[in-house]
Amino acid sequence: MLPSCRTRSIWTTLRSAGLFGTLAMAAVIAMASARLPVSVQAGPGGPVVSVDAVPDAGNTDTAVGSIQNSRSTTCGSTFDVDVVIQGVTNIAGFQADLLYNPAVLEVTGVNYNFLLTTTGTAVIDFGNPTPDTDGDFFLLAAMYSIIPFTGASGNGVLARITFEAVGSGSSALDLTSVKMADDTAISIPPTDANDFYIGPVNDASIVVNPCTGVGGIAELPDVIAGTALESGDSSGSSVGLIAAFAAAASAGALVLSGAAWCARKRWLR
Fold first, then answer.
1. Is residue 213 part of a domain?
2. pTM higher than 0.85 for the full model?
3. CA pair distance 257, 25, nearest whole angstrom
4. The predicted structure's pLDDT at residue 195
5. Closest CA relative to residue 28, chosen from 123, 115, 169
6. What's the CA gap between 195 and 152, in Å, rounded?
7. CA 91 to CA 29: how far, in whole Å?
8. Are strands 201-202 and 48-52 parallel, antiparallel or unpaired?
């Protein structure tokens, strides 16, 4: 069983990069951290990562629909938000912190089984468990297979996060500490000197209408407040680790390979 990312220690880093793609063992890529700036057509600036506040049927494993950068909802409601990517090549894992206002929102669920599953691998969730109520939800997922694999390319959903509106007010949804890697544990560019992603990253926001003081929640419609996303912004910095796991087919268990790691957001701050 994998050690928990919520424990006090970080897994020991082991280097054996030559194991990637050999001996019927496949690399599993995991990510580190960064918080940096941001635009929305995929192009020379690198793949575009966005928070879609109102995911529609156009958001799938291999497609991204119309991206909305804000929404209005009712106190007590439950809704989904997608982290999507456009124009990526050979992604095998990613990491980010999704910052939100804990007085307004609570994370109740997360699903990574979208783009990262499209090449036939399983996906391992190394991120924070749910529910999450501290305002900083750590996202981390990586491909896993007992045979060699390639990363996913194109457009699609990286993660679908379920929120509950627990109080009235507004909350930014800031995607920070973003990092992505390919199937050889190489960071996907553009990155800074520490391999942190500095390409386009687009944030979103949520408004929760006032709760009624008596008799439950306000009977207000859940409406889309945003328009198709053109650009966004995020900024800041943090520190993290990149690493990889390999699966031993003969043993049917995970063994450490590449730069094995585990990240714990609070420990790293």
1. yes
2. no
3. 9
4. 82
5. 123
6. 20
7. 9
8. parallel
